[in-house]
Each structure stands twice: as structure tokens, then as C-alpha cells.
């Protein structure tokens, strides 16, 4: 799993945890899907930003909190437009 390997490397390098931290995954292709799933498995509060309408829909259908990238960045992860309520 691509996302799992990335997170293991992150944890080994930084000695940080994702427990209850907000995680913004930019892009919901195969890598983004793996990163989102791994971040959730490690306790992160995952938001997904995707510009492609079909992938945004897929992310929402998969149960992710889908946000507008610019609004998520501007709000520092505290809000922004969401496709899920």
C-alpha cells in the first residue's frame, strides 16, 4: 500500500503521530486513496481535496470529508466548503 509506506517513513523521520490531527490529502487518485486510508488508520481526521468532479464524487461516496482546496488552506483546516455535512 503506497500510503502506508509513506506514513511509516514520515513517522520514523519526525517521531510525530497523527492521532486526532487534521490531515488534508490533495488529490484522490490511487496514491491519494492510499494516503487517506493510511492516515485514517493512524488516527488522523482526514479531509480530501480533489479538482476532478468524478474523483470528488468518488471520495465522497467512499465516505471522505471532501473540501475545496483553497478554502481548506485559507481556513487552516478549520472549515471551508464541504461536500458532506
From TrEMBL:
Domain S-adenosyl-L-homocysteine hydrolase NAD binding positions: 1-85
State the SMART domains in the record: AdoHcyase_NAD
For this protein, the record's SUPFAM superfamilies field holds:
NAD(P)-binding Rossmann-fold domains
Q: Which UniProt keywords apply?
A: Hydrolase
Q: Name one GO biological process term.
A: S-adenosylmethionine cycle
Q: Which GO terms describe its molecular function?
A: adenosylhomocysteinase activity
Q: Does the keyword Hydrolase apply?
A: yes
Using the UniProt record, name the top-level EC class of this enzyme in a single word.
hydrolase
This enzyme's EC code(s): 3.3.1.1
- Give the Pfam families listed for this entry: AdoHcyase_NAD
Gene3D superfamilies to which the protein is assigned, alphabetical: NAD(P)-binding Rossmann-like Domain
Q: Per the record, GO CC terms?
A: cytosol
Question: Would the keyword Thylakoid be found if you checked this record's keyword annotation?
Answer: no
Annotated family: Belongs to the adenosylhomocysteinase family.
Q: What is this protein called?
A: Adenosylhomocysteinase
Per UniProt, what is the name of the gene that codes for the protein in this document? Answer: ahcY_1
Amino acid at each position: 500500500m503506497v500510503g502506508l509506506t509513506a506514513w511509516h517513513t514520515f513517522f520514523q523521520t519526525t517521531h510525530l503521530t497523527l492521532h486526532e490531527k487534521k490531515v488534508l490529502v490533495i488529490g484522490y487518485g490511487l496514491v491519494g486513496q492510499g494516503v487517506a486510508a493510511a492516515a485514517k488508520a493512524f488516527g488522523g481526521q482526514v479531509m480530501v481535496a480533489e479538482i476532478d468532479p468524478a474523483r470528488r464524487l468518488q471520495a465522497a461516496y467512499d465516505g471522505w470529508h471532501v473540501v475545496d482546496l483553497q478554502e481548506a488552506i485559507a481556513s487552516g483546516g478549520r472549515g471551508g466548503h464541504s461536500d458532506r455535512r
